[in-house]
Specification:
alpha+beta, four-stranded mixed β-sheet, 9 helices
Length: about 375
C-alpha cells in the first residue's frame, strides 16, 4: 500500500489513522479518491442531524464533495471510511459488504470484528486499485463479495472459513493471535493471517467472475487442471495425507494449493495480491535494492505496480525477489520468523503470470488522487 500524508501538515499517516498525530487534523479514507484525507467541517443543511456532522476534504478545490463518517465509526470507532453525504446508506462501501456479525455485546467479539474489518478494508483497497472493486458506493445486489463473520457457539457446529455463491465466511476466532497460531501449526502452514484469509477467499469469488463466467475455463484447465474433479473428496485426501509427492513446489505457491485446482487458483490469487501490495509499499518508500546474483533494478528503484495499466509481469518478479529478501532479512534481525516464507518456482510463477494477465485483460485501473502523497 502507498504511504499517505496529511493534507494539512504533510506528515506521514497510515491507512487506518483517524487523526494526524502531528497536527491533530481529522482524517478519513475517501473510497472515491482512494486516499486518506484531512477533513474540515462542512456547512450543514438546516435539517441535518447534529449527531451526524458533515465533512469536506480540506485541500479540495471548490466545489467540494461532502461526506459523513461511516456509522461503524460513530457507534464503535471501528471504521475510518467516509460516505458521500448524498448516499442514503449509513455504512461505508466496505462495511456494507459485511452482512452477518457475531454478538457484539461481547467485548472480545467487538475487538475481533474490528481487526477483521481492518484486513477487509485493506483487501478493498487492493481490489479497487486493480479495478476489481467499485470505488463509488454501490447499490444492494451489485457485483462484489459479501461477508459473514461468525463465532462458534457451545454445542453448535464448527464455523468453517470459506466461500459459497459470493458469500465469504470467516470464523472470528482467526482474529485471536494464539488461536490463529495454533491452527497454523496444526495445519503445517508457514503463513496464516486475516488478510491472507480474505485474499484467498476473494480468489474463489473472482474465479467465478473472471474464469467461469468469462469464457476462460479452457485456458484455466491448461494451467491449473480440471476443477470438475470432486472437491470434497480432494480436500479430505489433502487433510489426511498432505500434498502428494515431494516436488509440489515445482508447480504450486503453497502445499494447500495442491489440494484442488480451485484452491490452487485461490492460493495463487492471494499471492498475487500480496505481491502488488508489497511492491506498492516498497515503491512508496523509493526502495532501490541491489542483491548479488539478481537482475539489477531500474535506476529509479521499485516501480508501483498500479502506475500503468500494462505493468510487465517479468519486471514485477525481478523487483519481488530483492524486496522479499530484504523483508525476511530485516525480520531475522529482530529475531522474528520470515514474513515471506515462500520460494516461487518457475511453475508457480507461470500461474501467477496467468492471474496477472486475467486481471489486466478484465479491468481498467481507476484514476487515483495523489494530492496528499508523501513527497
Amino acid at each position: 500500500m502507498k504511504i499517505f500524508s496529511c493534507d494539512t501538515c504533510r506528515h506521514p499517516v497510515f491507512f487506518e489513522n483517524v487523526q494526524c498525530l502531528n497536527c491533530g487534523s481529522t482524517l478519513a479514507f475517501l473510497p472515491d479518491q482512494l486516499n486518506v484525507a484531512a477533513l474540515q467541517a462542512a456547512p450543514s443543511p438546516q435539517d441535518a442531524s447534529p449527531s451526524a456532522p458533515l465533512w469536506q476534504r480540506a485541500s479540495a478545490p471548490e466545489p467540494r464533495r461532502t461526506y459523513r463518517m461511516c456509522l461503524n465509526h460513530d457507534l464503535y470507532q471501528a471504521c475510518n471510511f467516509a460516505v458521500p453525504a448524498e448516499d442514503p446508506n449509513p455504512l461505508c462501501i466496505s462495511c456494507r459488504q459485511t452482512r452477518v456479525l457475531p454478538d457484539l455485546s461481547l467485548q472480545a467479539n467487538q475487538h475481533r470484528w474490528y481487526l477483521i474489518e481492518i484486513a477487509k478494508r485493506r483487501l478493498f483497497y487492493t481490489l479497487a486499485r486493480l479495478g476489481l472493486a467499485n470505488t463509488e458506493n454501490r447499490a444492494q445486489g451489485e457485483q462484489g463479495p459479501v461477508f459473514a463473520f461468525l463465532a462458534e457457539q457451545p454445542g453448535g457446529p464448527p464455523v468453517m472459513t470459506g466461500h459459497q455463491d459470493g458469500l465469504i465466511t470467516l470464523n472470528v476466532a482467526e482474529a485471536d493471535d494464539d488461536e490463529r497460531a495454533r491452527r497454523r501449526v496444526l495445519l503445517r502452514e508457514p503463513y496464516r493471517t486475516l488478510l491472507g484469509h480474505l485474499r484467498h477467499e476473494s480468489g474463489h469469488y473472482y474465479w467465478n467472475q473472471l474464469i467461469r463466467d468469462a469464457g476462460r475455463l479452457a485456458a484455466f484447465r491448461q494451467i491449473f487442471g480440471d476443477e470438475s474433479v470432486d472437491y470434497g473428496q480432494a480436500l479430505q485426501q489433502y487433510y489426511a495425507s498432505g500434498p502428494s509427492g515431494d516436488d509440489w513446489q515445482t508447480a504450486h505457491v503453497s502445499s494447500y494449493a495442491t489440494a484442488h485446482p480451485w484452491e490452487d487458483w485461490a492460493e495463487t490469487w492471494a499471492h498475487y495480491l500480496h505481491m502488488v501490495d508489497l511492491l506498492e509499499t516498497a515503491a512508496a518508500f523509493h526502495a532501490n535494492l541491489v542483491v548479488p546474483g539478481t537482475a539489477p533494478m531500474p535506476r529509479e528503484g521499485v516501480s508501483n505496480p498500479f502506475d500503468t495499466p500494462e505493468t510487465d509481469f517479468t519486471q514485477l518478479v525481478q523487483q519481488w525477489v530483492p524486496v522479499t529478501l530484504m523483508l525476511n532479512s530485516l525480520n531475522r534481525s529482530l529475531g522474528q520468523n520470515d514474513a515471506y516464507p515462500f520460494a516461487l518456482s518457475a511453475g508457480a510463477l507461470h500461474k501467477l503470470r496467468f492471474v496477472h494477465d486475467v486481471i489486466h485483460d478484465s479491468t481498467t485501473r481507476p484514476s487515483v488522487d495523489d494530492a496528499n502523497d508523501t513527497p
